[in-house]
Amino acid sequence: MAAFGVSISALLAALVVVSALDVVASTPAAAQAFTYNPRPPKPVRPPAKNDGQMLVQATEVDYDYNNSRISAVGNVQMFYNGTSVEADKVIYDQKTKRLHAEGNIRMTDAEGKITYANIMDLSDDYRDGFVDSLRVDTEDQTRMAATRADRSSGNYTVFDNGVYTACAPCKDDPKKPPLWQVKGARIIHNQTEKMLYFENAQLEFFGVPMAYLPYFSTPDPTVKRKSGFLMPGFTTYTAFGYGVEIPYYWAIAPDMDATFTPRITTKQGVLLQTEFRQRFVDGSYQIRLYGIDQLDQGAFKGQPGDRQFRWGVDTKGQFALNDKWVWGWDGVLLSDYFFMSDYRLAQYKDPFGSFLSLPTEAISQLYLTGVGNRSFFDARAIYYLSYSGNQNQVPVVAPVIDYNNVINNNILGGEFSYKVNFTNLTRETAVFDPITAQAANPLNPLCTTTSADPMARTPSQCLLRGMPGTYTRLTAEAQWRKSYTDPLGEIWTPFASVRADAINADISNQPGVSNFLPVGDTQTVRFMPTVGLEYRYPFINVQPWGTTTVEPIAQVIIRPNEPYAGKLPNEDAQSLVFDTSNLFAVDKFSGYDRVEGGGRANVGVQATTQFDRGGSIKGMFGESYQMFGLNSFAVADVTNTGLDSGLQNPRSDYVASLAYSPNRTYTFSVRSRMDEATWNINRFEATAAANFDRWSIAVTYGDYAAQPELGYLTRREGILTSGSVKVASNWVVQGAARWDLEANKINQYAVGAGYVDDCFVLAANYITSYTYQAGSQPPALSHAFMFQIGLRTIAQTSTTSSSAGVQ
């Protein structure tokens, strides 16, 4: 073995080889075949030094002084500035200033690109040369091969009979064609322009030609951002007919870009769409602009879209003040509230996560958020833009401020925390919701704004979901709790809290509102001190097969009655589901506008079994008692929150839950609420899920008793199912459906199939979802079909077709 180091400029040819093929390494080019070659470990390199020094190792090194040639033969390794070249033989001719390498050439650059070849012959100034039997594997898993590559004028490289792919070769059959590849008779790379020009190119799937282009060009893959046209997209909808989108991307500067996406429609002309983005060191923002000069505004006769020009603006941004604080905004402004839905500019969410329709509103907000070690601050002003036309019933929230903090030091031996909430909102028109069959009858709309009878909207017929006017509330609450265990193993947790609310409600005297709330300007201060004690006594049983813990739990809470119960607005505490998850909550209301009062005792038992071989069972059963004072859940407010909840009686309904996981594959859970007197089931949910290597399924059954005080006049029963099957290594079929057992029909469903791997995406989804209409119209059941195809590093496109009909 011999080694030598030289500093002559001629031996920079090794680096020339790297440069000559650096662009080639990620070029969509050509090759006749790819084989599976697991990437071997990179050779150990000496420390990189940019001083012109080169290390050459070989079995034999010959100096031909007469012909001015240096030859390295046998296991040649050349190292220079983090780049290595391996070959059977390397010859450098000092007279012609050319570097010639032969046999099993393998070059690895500092970025991880690996180039294979049989022959390399290049000039030391990098202007001319050729490479035979070229193959390149890049760090980002793209691959390229060509029978020959010729470089001239120091700028142009021509690849003959080349193939490019971003797919890995088949491990089991290396000669098998990749999933897709691009072949070209000639591929010309202009290094100055960083562009690739393909001549007589064809796209193949599994070796079968699928598309032919006599000529096309694209930026080389070393370019992360370059101006040019993107793949088109297709969409259809009743309002505008068929549409095709042809995006153009403009790389304005390293920190900003824009995309222009005109959508040419068959019925309404051209919808212009522009998106501008800019990034800074501490954040980024983007702006979307939409506009269309409609050809047929008569298609929207009698609707807000019955105008010639329609437009929209959508913007968002976020910036960091430091490592703890960020501020940002979201903003939407439209010519009319139907614009987004008419042109399907608001996108569907994941159809398999849940049954969500197209968004019914957009959020414009300005926010400031800070996160500490044990604290959180959030302040924002929010404007909800309704897509359904009920803008006067949507509140403007400006501002809403939340601050929570847990003191790091113990106080009186326990943990002390406090939180503050400030909310100010304004609504123009009251929001009524029917709770009787008569009120819900479209021919007798007692609970709509079209009813002229001011006494029509009464608490026996309607709920007041949103009050008209301005509502301001400041809430501050301090909490303390401490846990200790006595010598018998009993766990005692005393706790105390005090809460204060300052409320100002300026309620408009609109028809029917006075039946629910006092109209005019009202100021109120509300205090709620609380003390309580929680007791737990866990019993532990250890067996050879596992450990079981049975834990009786009792909780006693002492406090005065809820001040002004049911006589104040309720905007954020309208949802209440009583189950084991909130059995031991000190305040079971979901928001700040209601506060639980009166003495209460919560009792129950929790049992957990953990099996040594995996798996567990966890169950809980309990009940809540109103010991003294006013039961807040028996008091009707503007939304009847608490009524029909199971907590409205002195003795609550029984609540129970059971969860069983025998292993990581299966999970089963049951939640139930039973009438305290009759044991009739008022609420029941059961979920079963299985997750295997190739398929998964989840089924949820729900059975809910009528809750007439909340507007649910009949029993509800249904089944929601979702699942996916991996039919092949990369093929997945998935779907979901909701079956209304009372109506005995499937009212919503989604199905889809897709192929996904590291180089190719193919997906198709069919979705049904509800789109809510303006005014009192019933929701429309929308149908949408979405198709997507993508070739990694080449292009991606999609098409959407949707329609809607009133159900």
Automatic annotation (TrEMBL):
GO terms for biological process: Gram-negative-bacterium-type cell outer membrane assembly; lipopolysaccharide transport. Keywords: Cell outer membrane, Membrane, Signal. The keyword Signal applies. The keyword Ubl conjugation does not apply. Residues 1-25 form the signal peptide. Residues 309-731 form the LptD C-terminal domain. Residues 199-276 form the LPS-assembly protein LptD central domain. GO terms for cellular component: cell outer membrane; transporter complex. PANTHER family: LPS-ASSEMBLY PROTEIN (PTHR30189), LPS-ASSEMBLY PROTEIN LPTD (PTHR30189:SF1). Belongs to the LptD family. Component of the lipopolysaccharide transport and assembly complex. Involved in the assembly of lipopolysaccharide (LPS) at the surface of the outer membrane. This is LPS-assembly protein LptD. It comes from Bradyrhizobium uaiense. The gene is lptD.
